[in-house]
Amino acid sequence: MLKVREVSFSYKGQGKNSRIPALKNVSFDLESGSFVILTGRTGSGKSTLLQLLCGLIEPESGRIDCEYGKLTSRASMIFQYPEECFFNPTVREEIEFSLKITGRNDYGRLEDILQMIGFELDGFGSRTPFSLSGGEQRLLAIASIVALDREIVLFDEPTSGLDARAVDRVRKILSSERKAGKTIIVATHWPAEFLDLATHMMNLVEGKISHFVTVSEYVSGNLHRERLEEREKYLLNYYKRFTRFPASEEELISFVRREKRC
Fold this sequence. Notes:
Elements: E1 2-12, E2 19-30, E3 35-39, H1 46-54, E4 61-66, H2 71-74, E5 75-78, H3 91-102, H4 107-116, H5 121-124, H6 134-148, E6 152-156, H7 164-179, E7 183-187, E8 200-205, E9 208-214, H8 215-220, H9 230-242, H10 249-261
Parallel strand pairs: 3-7, 3-8, 5-6, 6-7
Antiparallel strand pairs: 1-2, 1-4, 8-9
Helix pairs in contact: 3-4, 3-6, 6-7
Protein name: ABC transporter ATP-binding protein
GO molecular function, one term: ATP hydrolysis activity
Domain ABC transporter: 2-231
């Protein structure tokens, strides 16, 4: 169980005593093994909330309680810009670093992790992480975090910049983590990629939770429409029309244009 109670956080502004609020009195309970899709516009507080849940920053007020113990040793996070997180000279050593922390630094486990993201040890093991493409770096960051085997796994825009094949790999990784009983929170602008895996939907608006519901409540429309942002309303309209979510942003945009012409 993860309990968040009246958590607020702000960043230093330009003035001497200026503060820019990022989260305002956020509260929710999350059962172990839940999979939450976290949505909201840029600047709504998604990344800040993930950093608080990972223990990277401390709340200015309120508290976060975790049944597993200290957040810094029980939660791990994949950042939006993975290239900022690599500090080992090779792909192999980057993953081995995580495996050593868990005490499972064996060749078989290393190969399993690499295979999970579609990397061959002979082809990728000796390469520097900074020689990889942006998509490959994101997959490596995900693999390194999964190798830590933490109870809570937080993802900040995990599919940003990935092609369809790489997105499918990320989905399979998240599905495997869910089956293992992990608590997962994915911050994304494209919730349709994970709705079939998730248990809950949470949306932030200007640092506050506008709704936190089960996925079934979300897709069935058992949710006050005024709580939804315009994009979400069109996503649900699309689902109700076709009983599936759009496969791409372009497909959604095309649907919105048709709706507005009617």
